[in-house]
Amino acid sequence: MKKPSIKDVAKLAGVSTATVSNVFSGRKAVNDDLKDRVRGAAQQLGYQANRAASQLRSQRNQVVAVLVPNLTDTFFAKIISNLENMAFSHGYDVIVASSHDRLDVEESRINALLRWQPAGLIAIPCSGSIPKSIANLKDTTPVVMVDRVSVEDCLFDTVTIDNFKSGVDAGVFLSQQGHEKILIAASNLDHPPIKNRTQGCFETVEQLGGRCEVLALGSDLEEGANVLGSWLDNNEHPTAIFGLTNVTTLSVLTAMADRNIRVCDDISLVAHDDYAWMSARSTSLTVMQQPVDDIAKTAWNRLIARIESKEVNQEPQSSVLEAHLVKRKSVKKL
Amino acid sequence: MKKPSIKDVAKLAGVSTATVSNVFSGRKAVNDDLKDRVRGAAQQLGYQANRAASQLRSQRNQVVAVLVPNLTDTFFAKIISNLENMAFSHGYDVIVASSHDRLDVEESRINALLRWQPAGLIAIPCSGSIPKSIANLKDTTPVVMVDRVSVEDCLFDTVTIDNFKSGVDAGVFLSQQGHEKILIAASNLDHPPIKNRTQGCFETVEQLGGRCEVLALGSDLEEGANVLGSWLDNNEHPTAIFGLTNVTTLSVLTAMADRNIRVCDDISLVAHDDYAWMSARSTSLTVMQQPVDDIAKTAWNRLIARIESKEVNQEPQSSVLEAHLVKRKSVKKL
DNA sequence: TGCCATTAGTAAATCGTTTTACAGAACAAT
DNA sequence: ATTGTTCTGTAAAACGATTTACTAATGGCA
């Protein structure tokens, strides 16, 4: 019942194991007839090269590790899906781990990933700071940090969007539409993107003469809805809300629905990130749309460049992309 | 710059490599002071066992492979997230591949997965039939097939829900609420779950005196919205729609929004599966909720049982779970 | 004391590949 | 005929862990 090894194939084809290896790796030329014989034998036995063995001997590993805070958030899922695609077409496999947004889990998941000795690592950390075990990788393994990173003090290549500008754009748009009392529904201000979006929006609105309030809703939908709900019950309503993430936007919608507050008619809404469900509504949501495919693509290209050119000691490079305002129907002109 | 190996640790700690191995694997007792010395040395060098080497030698592989049709569908993402969790707590790693709902990709992704010689495979195929390379695994590697499988002719353990009953329940509920003209918005009738849901609902409604129509919208949101849209433009409207998947439901909502048709007031709606956004609306959606966590848990338990008890030749076992009706506000009582 | 059982360690074999170092054959150019 | 070069192929070493088989030391018990 054991799987056939390269020796079995070699024996059946009447050649040495080196030749079999050469047939499949293509690193040395092999006569066509021999090639056929080897391929035939492999086929017949159902031979598949053992990755562990080949990785061990060759010291190269066609694997990249990917760490995300959460697999069920479509934003991260899309990034992974893109990465998986590109990796596959480059002959790499991907191993994925989720930190479930917990620092302790993060640390141990990273260690598990590293035991694979991956050729590279693409990581979206759950907090703004770089986990110890990743920092240790400096000069050893190519690393690209994505999304939840502060660009300035990062030791590695980074791919982010200009979250401050994203906040500014939303603030400008809402102000232009006449909104002067705006609530920023943030998730967690410890996350650099959230902090920056908040600052961008806040400063802009205040500068343009409006007033801005910030509320941290956390990353749990229900809880966020409750927090916002009781805030709404005890405060004068804003004319517009800026929902900084998928989940906060859902919290906002939930709290509003519970109180029969209508989107647009009663309170305008701008969401961050663009999910399918945001358009599939009678009042489709105006959003700051992140270029998620580009983010993934950029991260992959950075990583592959590091891996293949061995540009290990070169300066870290930070790529900053931009979110774009997509106007739909959730913002009322006052 | 090379990573330290077990030899380096052994040398630094002044012991043999066997002892180092024993310290970390715990397979043989080691004196406490030696243990400390070894651990210290490992720490100092930043030693991490090379998985490839240990897998190769020990012939066991703490890896399970997971194949899904799509990573960005939250349903599959949740399953993966659950699996990843359980795997991790059992000391396994997970490698994930997506077939992107294409048969040719599926085949090659499976082969890539299998080169890892995983301890087991959990697969959600993209069509109802079992891919060749999975069929070959019979008697070799434990396999659990999930969701898109026809239970009868499957060679492997299966975990599914009773999709026929799911359709029946939706049909009964809608009929009870007085709906007699129902449109079933299906995605792709080749998928066994979809076929079964459709049949269950169709037969029930007809039996209870209503009329049912079936429309296949495919798995692209926009396209589905167009198909449904032109159908709505050219046919007498149903009083209720049963959306069989996440995406079809989004297509339905899009087509309705485009035409200013109100959910519930104009056309009632029952969705299949339960996503966060379905509740975060003023008219929250009534749904058939799949026990997604249970599905993942059951699949994992089956797989682990096969892996650990080596019950390779035992009869395949099929676990059938149930979806539950969650009543919310999208269905009008006529 | 003598004998057996248990414990704690090591040297060396091993897993399935890839790679190195070498060799014979064929052919071209001198 | 000699030399060099290119092509194909092989035997054996190597990768870094685990496991086997063996030894030495310790302790318990008659």
Explained architecture:
Chains A, B: Residues 4-58 form the HTH lacI-type domain. The structure is a homodimer of 334-residue chains. Chain A has 334 residues and is of the alpha/beta class. Chain A folds into 3 domains: 6-58, 434 Repressor (Amino-terminal Domain) (Orthogonal Bundle); 63-162 and 292-322, Rossmann fold (3-Layer(aba) Sandwich); 163-290, Response regulator (Rossmann fold). Chain A has helices spanning 6-13, 17-25, 32-45, 51-58, 74-89, 103-114, 132-135, 163-176, 192-207, 221-234, 246-258, 276-279, 292-309; strands at 63-68, 93-98, 120-123, 143-146, 157-161, 181-186, 211-216, 240-243, 268-272, 286-289, 318-321, 324-326. Chain A has a 6-stranded parallel β-sheet with strand order 2-1-3-4-5-11, with helices on both faces. Chain A has a 6-stranded mixed β-sheet with strand order 7-6-8-9-10-12, sandwiched between helices. In chain A, helix 1 (6-13) packs across helix 2 and helix 10 (221-234) crosses helix 11. The N and C termini of chain A lie far apart (74 Å). At the A-B interface, helix 4, helix 5, strand 2, helix 6 and helix 11 of A face helix 4, helix 5, strand 2, helix 6 and helix 11 of B. Chain A binds a DNA duplex (30 and 30 nucleotides) through residues 5-7, 15-22, 25, 27-31, 34, 49-59.
